[in-house]
Amino acid sequence: MLSSVLNSEQAIIVNVGIMRTFVQLRNILSSHQDLAHKLDELEQKYDAQFKVVFDAIREFTEPPTGQPPREIGFKPE
Fold first, then answer.
1. Cα pseudo-dihedral 11, 54, 50, 46, rounded to 10
2. Distance, CA of 30 to CA of 27 (rounded, Å)
3. From CA 19, how far away is CA 68, in angstroms rounded?
4. CA–CA separation, 26 vs 61, rounded Å?
5. Which residues have a Cβ under 8 Å from the Cβ of 15 and sit 6 or more positions away?
6. Which of 59, 60, 54, 52 has the alpha carbon at shortest distance from 26?
7. pLDDT of residue 51
8. I need a labelling partner for 24 at 20 to 30 A (CA). Which of 16, 38, 49, 60 fits?
9. 46 vs 19: CA distance, rounded Å
10. For the chain, how big is the Rg over CA atoms in Å?
11. 66 exposed, middle or buried (CB, 10 Å; 0-12, 13-18, 19+)?
12. At what angle do helices 9-31 and 51-61 cross, to 10 degrees?
């Protein structure tokens, strides 16, 4: 979260890397249900201290909504 607030080149690189990791995790989990099952087991094994982490993983592993992805970058007219 801090990397998305800071305004430096390194913070931007880290933030993009984090987002790409969560997208890859979502793709892996959608194609491998056994990993989703293992994630469920881990969630039950650990206490509420990690609830925030598991909630964030669940949010990123859900399939994207029907909205088309927003294009990023400058496009001259």
1. -140
2. 5
3. 17
4. 4
5. 3, 4
6. 60
7. 77
8. 49
9. 24
10. 16
11. exposed
12. 70
The answer to whether 63 and 30 are in contact (CB under 8 A) is yes
Give the DSSP letter of residue 48. G
Residues of the chain scoring pLDDT < 70: 1-5, 31-32, 63-65, 69
What does the block give as tokens for 12?
Answer: 């931007």
Q: Which residue has the tokens 């001259």?
A: 76
For residue 15, give the nearest of 25, 5, 24, 23 by alpha carbon: 5
Q: Which of 53, 24, 19 is nearest to 39 (CA)?
A: 53
Query: What's the pTM?
Result: 0.38
